[in-house]
Write the structure tokens for this entry.
Amino acid sequence: MSTPSTPHGAADQTVPTCPRHPDRVSYVRCQRCGRPSCPECSVPASVGVQCVDCVREAQRNAPVHRTALGAPLRGGRPVVTWTIIGLCLASYVLQLAMGWGGWTSRLAFSPALGEIEPWRFVTAAFVHSTSFFHIALNMYALWIVGPYLENLLGRVRFTALYLLSAIGGQVAVVLLADPSGASWFTGTVGASGAVFGLFGAIFVVMRKMGQEARGMLVIIGLNLVVGFVVPNISWQGHLGGLVTGTVLGAVYAYAPRERRTVVSVLVTVVVAVVLVGAALLRYSQA
């Protein structure tokens, strides 16, 4: 009985193929796992190439660099700040095009309207008076303060800070308005409450970071005085936004490092609940 024999000098070898593309022959191998890798699945490395699977695994296991307040360290543009400014500017154009009775009246806030249309607690922060000075001042302040806070806090906490400060400003208007007077029906617009919230937060954050904060305190004080002295400015909204932003900023800045995420989420939810509860209580009394 005889068996087939391999000719002298020949080797019985399997042709290497790419694991992700079995129909492609590849004699190039990944420097990490040693598997064959076709040109489409190869990523240049400092020595040779690596397959895309090894590159993704390395990226998942790579340490995340964070800011002093625990946010992922990102490069590039302040996306949230730019988005808010873009929404406010687009809204301002619609205001000019449609007038007060059109776009503005649908989004403006008053205690009376907020009770039946609660979304106005947020939307009023994205419309302004027809005076260009109003929106220009708010957007300039947002542009100066926003990127710094967005970078340190991260996009999620910065968004929560901005929106809850805006809501806090409107809640203060409700709490300090007279249900039997004209203030209950007077409309308010503008991002000032949210901007004052950023002012309060950045003051606390700068103190935490060991930076000189007296200049920011002077800015906050001057703006508060202007709100009390100049007519047709909602000092109540400024005050409410400032208090809300200061509280959130203090929590975000001083939360224990090992429990920063849990504490930040918990206090953000608590602040939101307190604002909603305060507004509902006031409405029940009115």
Summary: Strands lie at 42-44, 49-51. Residues 17-54 form one domain. The first strand starts at residue 42 and ends at 44. The chain has a mean pLDDT of 86.
